[in-house]
Design goal:
Helices cover 59% and strands 16% of the residues. By secondary structure, it is an alpha+beta fold.
Amino acid sequence: MRQRPALTLAVITALLFGLLAPAGSALGSEERRRKNKVDSAIEDLRHDLNETSRELRAAASALQRAESRLPPARARVARVHGKLVAAQARDRVLGEQLDVARAEVARAKKEIEGTVLEIEASHVLIGRIARSSYQNGGLGELAVVLQSQSPDEFASRLVLVQTALRSEGNVLGDLAESRADLAAQKATLAAKRRQIADMKRAQEVVVERVQGLEAQALAAQQAVETIISERADAVAAVEREKQAEEARYAQMQAESQRLSRILAERARAARLAAARARAAGRTTSAAAGAMTWPVSAGITSSYGMRTHPVTGIYKLHDGTDFGAWCGTPVRAAASGVVIQAANVVGYGNQLVIDHGAMRGAGVATSYSHLMSNNRGAGSRVDRGDIIGYSGGGEGMFGAGYSTGCHLHFMVYVNGGTADPMGWL
């Protein structure tokens, strides 16, 4: 049976690297039971990676790191892009405002030019009036009226003189108004020029920010592309190591089957010997009861079927794992004879003890991932004797497919594996 490895990989990496929040303290009995079950599953999954080749574990870790870095990297691209778009929009608005301000300055300049021309024309006209008044001694208009020959001519000339005088007053009034307009227009022009200067400085700041954000956006995008490339490399490495892991697992199965055949035959012989002893009225010391714990440490992974977190292989975890530190003494769970002490594929340094007949069956125990052992094949051991020291650490000789210190303890009954907890 196979299950999708991607899902299990996501679960295990989340568990391994602390991505799941701790449960609350106020739990009911049912919730606590479920939590304990989940905690147990987490420990089992974590240990499954401990019993994986370090190459596959490294590839899976690299993939997890790439997967965890990718979302924040993409989020940074989005954030920088958003800031860049906002800065570019601000730059466009300032540019448009500058265009409007420059047009207003040009218009103000034209208005000032027009006002200056009006003032100059008023000056010319006033000069003419002044000269005329001076030449006529200031009584020219009155002489024109008095020289009239008839009442009608007098009235007509009087109207003309009055109109001329009013025009002179209007010219003076227009001149004053034009001068006031000129002052206002110059003030407006100066204000517009200051506004343009402020807007130019603001735009320079925005342009500098845009340039900085463009550089950040480029760097962020390159970071994303680098992570994507790393993820692709990690996926390829995981796939390669998965195939190698499956091949190694097949080797382990073959070795296990070979040992099972040997133990099955020895178990058959032990049962026959026990039957003959009973028939003869004798008992054997091997027929003792429960075994003792092989090491002073807690259980980190139990016996049973499970899916490998990376390869997706649904397989039997054929023993009970004890979380013993490297160098912890390992003791014989029962008396018997050592039938194998060798470095075995997957199991590392392994020592197998045949206990003969127990509870009506041929029973043997196996101790794997030993850092060292002090018993050879054919040695007789008694219950509680130190037979070796636990190992399994990263890079340690004899670890087998193990990257964490622990003891892998197995029980064989009539040649097949059984749950060790039923015998301890």
